[in-house]
Amino acid sequence: MSTATMGVAANLADAHARIAAAALRSGRSAQAVRLLLVTKTVAPERVLEAVRAGQTDLGENKVQEGRQKAEALAGEAVRWSMIGHLQSNKVKDVLRFAGEVQSLDRLSLAVALEKRLQFLGTGLDVFVQVNTSNEASKYGLTPEETPAFLKELAALHALRPKGFMTLATFTPDEAEVRRCFRCLRDTRDRARNDAPQGAALAELSMGMSGDYEWAVEEGATVVRVGQAVFGPRPLPDSHYWPGAAGAG
């Protein structure tokens, strides 16, 4: 049966089972991998079905859409992550609903987040976005730029870097997709040895609906899955967001 004909709860259970199996194949436990459910273009009522089925981690690409859904699901035991490209002028709005930003890709954004967080007297978990596919259409630092960026982040005390995020090349070529995932893992491993944040940089957010099992096998600790649970979107990601950053 397709994801369109199966229910949200059944699709969610299937995704968790696939993650668990892939984790075991990589010598890890199912609990080592977090499923971040991507809710973009999905109505709050359908997202609530997933929450009722036990899903607590939700991810959004657009600030306005995220705020609207967070308000619609107010009172539910969920945590929102921002996974799409974030403009610095949207920092105040994103911090009204997101407890995590996985798309930190430049110093100006880090400084804007830091300033607002200092004003609020709170901190924020962040992932550094790395462009492992070397595609101009995608956001993110190059692997070579990442060490210097981490040194600059060390001076911003309200930000808590937890690891790294990437989008693999959108291709059915398994070898190329896995290469992107291994590139992120290697970037993480070097950073844990050399960066000021050291062992705190444990997380790898990589893998989406079409490749999350490969990602888990390559070491992902977070996978961003949407269409595998909610079914295909009515229009391609490029219609909504050029570059499809953070797509799931």
Automatic annotation (TrEMBL):
<feature type="modified residue" description="N6-(pyridoxal phosphate)lysine">
    <location>
        <position position="40"/>
    </location>
</feature>
<comment type="function">
    <text>Pyridoxal 5'-phosphate (PLP)-binding protein, which is involved in PLP homeostasis.</text>
</comment>
<dbReference type="InterPro" id="IPR029066">
    <property type="entry name" value="PLP-binding_barrel"/>
</dbReference>
<dbReference type="InterPro" id="IPR011078">
    <property type="entry name" value="PyrdxlP_homeostasis"/>
</dbReference>
<dbReference type="Pfam" id="PF01168">
    <property type="entry name" value="Ala_racemase_N"/>
</dbReference>
<feature type="domain" description="Alanine racemase N-terminal">
    <location>
        <begin position="31"/>
        <end position="234"/>
    </location>
</feature>
<keyword id="KW-0663">Pyridoxal phosphate</keyword>
<protein>
    <recommendedName>
        <fullName>Pyridoxal phosphate homeostasis protein</fullName>
    </recommendedName>
</protein>
<comment type="similarity">
    <text>Belongs to the pyridoxal phosphate-binding protein YggS/PROSC family.</text>
</comment>
<dbReference type="InterPro" id="IPR001608">
    <property type="entry name" value="Ala_racemase_N"/>
</dbReference>
